[in-house]
Write a structure and sequence with these properties.
Mean pLDDT: 93
Low-confidence stretches: 339-348
Shape: globular
Strand order of the largest sheet: 1-5-6-7-10-11-12-13
Bound molecules: protoporphyrin IX containing FE
Radius of gyration: 28 Å
Distance between the termini: 59 Å
Length: 622
């Protein structure tokens, strides 16, 4: 299933001076600051920093490859809507940017599509511009969620939506011109507080006014930013609808019956929120939307959905299946863009054979081989090795997280049903895989040791402050296994998505916790509520001891204990081998991440995920 991002934005590299063109002040303009970077200004006021992905198709395509996105449906930015201005200016502005969007898409190798904008303060002009744009190749339109005081239930806007339905245009509703702005002058509150409320207001207005009853079901409508606060407050709306005549509106059905009339995007930036959104709207009504390439967008597009606990089927729908329906493009035609992209990148003529996969397209080999960007210039011969070794570690970390999450689920299953052995065997089987992977990870350092220290020094200066400290997956592994240290979050502040993911790992039960919960369910572990931490630790160690002392009854659990012990042992070996590598390459110098280097790393050697398993060994010899 091709991955389609339906909510992202563009700005052209340049456009005419709108203030001079229309003779009115405070129009957006672009100020290029340094290569590849620019600022959007509104009159004299700074609005937003942007970078070349906004206007350069090559940058966009390579970042789409990086993120595994086949198609982007881009739109201009609400700051260009100009709904409050004379219609002739807003229409002219819409035309400029609608045509610029098509120009950008034309260079997108079939992978960039667009939504147009219209001067929504004038319904006639809007309908005409929409028709022109649909003929020119746009897939639909992006509109703001209100025009001045008019909400989406305004009869003129409903007429426009009817026209969209007739034209087969997909409609993305984007919040803008946030309410209560005078009370939110600081801290980006219009974005964090106003936007969700605006979006919710748009949906509620359409439901209660009966607009959905009047509009045909073929209208394809999506609300950006996860539909704002709508899903979370639906219960409140429903309750008011049921119990207060004044809150009833004129709709024919209770509000919850209209959820099949619109989509929302996935831009909620939190896994629990996404899970909740999908639970409320249904997996068939949520679509990947990233707000790329803006600073508050998803930094690795699709990660939230991919790393969620949703089923594979639901992920497929969110990542692309729903978008294909929303846009009225077949998923095959979107996938075809991937095939042609793969073919051209591989440089070999491919005769398409239906939907057959190739080795390369399945494994995304061309994309993978493009992911090694040396910082040294000209590239130092050994930097490729340095990058590939690190990337390989990260891939294996990904697999470890995948397997350890499954082990956690198995142990939870075992706790829920202590009679059943299936989950315990499965946990032991997967843990064996984890130990084998970690064994490879310990060994892999030897490859890097073929790099002379002088060769590393030749490009080390280019790496600062990049450091293993910032490996979010390594820290995820530590947190997942039970070594939760909130202080380490500070290294991830520059990447909010990673920060949020790690915060989630801090909150969620660790492997350590679920393992001992399972022993408690098995009746092996009793802890007094008033026990001290030391007494709790002893009780856990004695629970393990009890398993080993009754080997015949607990072979399965002992196997899990042995695998966990081995994993702990191998992670310590990894830490030790890493220190040896560090000393071999940079001696006792400071790290690029600012730590004292090997002397700091030596302090981590005492870290164990499951100290009770080791303590039990001491107790056995009592
Ligand atoms: C030339 C090779 C390497 C050198 C010189 C090196 C150096 C260092 C240093 C000095 C630190 C401490 C933090 C800092 O101040 O930067 C560190 C941390 C770390 N490095 Fe490396 N490293 C190398 C290779 C690797 C490789 C191949 C990996 C594989 C993923 C890796 C993963 C890590 C991790 C995860 C940490 C954080 C450890 C913790 O906080 O416990 N390093 N590295």
């Amino acid at each position: 299933m091709p991955v389609i991002d339906i909510h992202n934005h563009f700005f052209p590299r340049a456009w005419p001076d709108l203030a001079a063109r229309y003779g009115t002040p405070n129009w957006p303009w672009i100020k290029h600051t340094e290569a590849g970077n620019a600022e959007i200004m509104i009159g004299d006021r700074f609005f937003r920093k942007i970078y070349s992905a906004c206007w350069d198709p090559e940058v966009r395509l390579s970042e789409m490859d990086r993120d595994g996105v086949e198609m982007q449906v881009l739109s201009a930015t609400p700051v260009l809507f100009a709904y409050e201005r004379p219609v002739e200016h807003a229409l002219d502005c819409a035309r400029l940017f609608n045509d610029a969007a098509l120009e950008l898409c034309a260079q997108g190798k079939g992978r960039l599509k667009s939504l147009c904008q219209v001067p929504l303060q004038d319904i006639d002009a809007s309908c005409k511009e929409l028709t022109r744009c649909m003929r020119a190749g746009h897939l639909g339109v992006q509109i703001g969620n209100h025009v001045g005081d008019k909400n989406l239930d305004d009869p003129g806007i409903v007429t426009f939506l009817q026209h969209c339905a007739d034209e087969g245009a997909a409609v993305l509703v984007h919040p803008w011109d946030m309410l209560g702005a005078q009370r939110m002058p600081n801290y980006m509150m219009p974005w964090t507080v106003g936007m969700p409320a605006e979006t919710q207001l748009g949906i509620v207005a359409m439901i209660l006014s009966g607009a959905f009853d009047r509009l045909p079901p073929k209208l394809r409508l999506c609300f950006a930013h996860g539909g704002g606060s709508f899903a979370f407050l639906l219960g409140r709306l429903e309750n008011a609808w049921q119990h207060h005549a004044v809150a009833h509106g004129v709709c024919e059905l209770p509000p919850s019956q209209y959820l099949n009339r619109f989509y929302v995007d996935s831009a909620v930036f939190d896994e629990r929120a996404l899970q909740f959104l999908v639970g409320t709207m249904g997996a068939e009504h949520v679509m990947l939307g990233s707000d790329y390439p803006f600073p508050l967008g998803e930094h690795r597009v699709g990660t939230l959905i991919r790393s969620s606990q949703l089923t594979a089927q639901a992920k497929d729908r969110l990542l692309g299946g729903n978008a294909a329906e929303f846009l009225g493009v077949s998923s095959k035609s979107a996938a075809a863009t991937t095939d042609s992209k793969t073919a051209s990148a591989a440089g070999t003529p491919i005769v398409p054979q239906g939907e057959q996969l190739t080795y390369s397209s399945y494994l995304k080999v061309p994309e993978l081989l493009k992911l090694q960007d040396a910082q040294s210039s000209p590239p130092h011969h050994d930097e490729l090795l340095f990058i590939i070794v690190h990337q390989t570690y990260e891939l294996w970390f990904k697999e470890l997280l995948h397997d350890l999450d499954a082990v956690v689920a198995n142990l939870r299953g075992a706790a829920a049903n202590p009679e059943s052995r299936d989950e315990v065997y499965e946990a032991a089987r997967l843990l064996r895989r984890c130990t084998e992977i970690t064994r490879v990870l310990v060994e892999q350092f030897t490859i890097l040791e073929t790099m002379l220290p002088t060769h590393f020094m030749a490009f080390r200066g280019k790496l600062e402050p990049a450091s293993g400290f910032q490996s979010e997956q390594f820290r995820e592994l530590e947190f997942l296994c039970g070594l939760k240290d909130a202080k380490m979050l500070r290294y991830h502040r520059p990447t909010p998505e990673a920060h949020a993911l790690l915060e989630r790992r801090l909150r969620e039960p660790s492997l350590h916790e679920v393992f001992f919960d399972a022993l408690r369910a098995l009746g092996k572990l009793q802890v007094d509520d008033n026990a001290t931490e030391r007494e709790r630790f002893d009780a856990r160690a004695r629970a393990v001891l009890a398993l080993y002392r009754d080997e015949r009854s607990h072979r399965d659990w002992i196997d899990v204990c042995e695998r966990l012990t081995e994993f702990d042992e191998l992670v310590v070996s990894w830490r030790l081998r890493h220190i040896q590598l560090v000393e071999r390459v940079i001696g006792v110098r400071m790290g690029t991440g600012g730590s004292a280097g090997s002397s700091y790393l030596k302090l981590t050697l005492d870290k164990k995920f499951f100290p009770e398993l080791w303590e039990a060994r001491t107790l056995l010899t009592e």
